[in-house]
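Follow-up to my post from last week.
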Amino acid sequence: NAGVTQTPKFQVLKTGQSMTLQCAQDMNHNSMYWYRQDPGMGLRLIYYSASEGTTDKGEVPNGYNVSRLNKREFSLRLESAAPSQTSVYFCASSSSGKNQPQHFGDGTRLSIL
Amino acid sequence: RKEVEQDPGPFNVPEGATVAFNCTYSNSASQSFFWYRQDCRKEPKLLMSVYSSGNEDGRFTAQLNRASQYISLLIRDSKLSDSATYLCVVNPPGGYNKLIFGAGTRLAVHP
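User reply:
Got it. Predicted complex:
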């Protein structure tokens, strides 16, 4: 089982460049999430999608956009990368409803110079 | 006050030891609770859910104290492979499963 797959695994960008992080899940989950993880801090929610066709802002959405392409895929776009966006990005998915744990991809390490 | 607070550690323990971590949360109406494990430079993985009555999974025991707003994780007979960062995770009220993650407690088990 692939679970949650993220691409790319590593990326280096220059300030001002744009890129899209891809995420796909094969668990038939309705909900998908994008987080960033910085040293000494918990994972912080950037955007989430409760179901296909809907997206909502999380705790730290500034500088990012998302697209829920279909039930399987949820992409995160940086339009104009900034050094403050250097981080590890995780995508996750879960079933709908209360008390559902989330399942994570193995992350994208992004450095912005 | 942070929504979810954990002692960052590290907790350095010998193999076979029993170790316990606590985590406090600020929103008394939080609905569900989890412990995740994260190995160095890897993704978080669900270790166990935490139920109101407490629950056990092998060497791991989780407890919830709603009155004092904390959850705990007890690891018995520690193994080298238990070395990791343990994330306390809380689902606040409001729906949509928007989990709040603590920054984690690092455990190092040594021979």
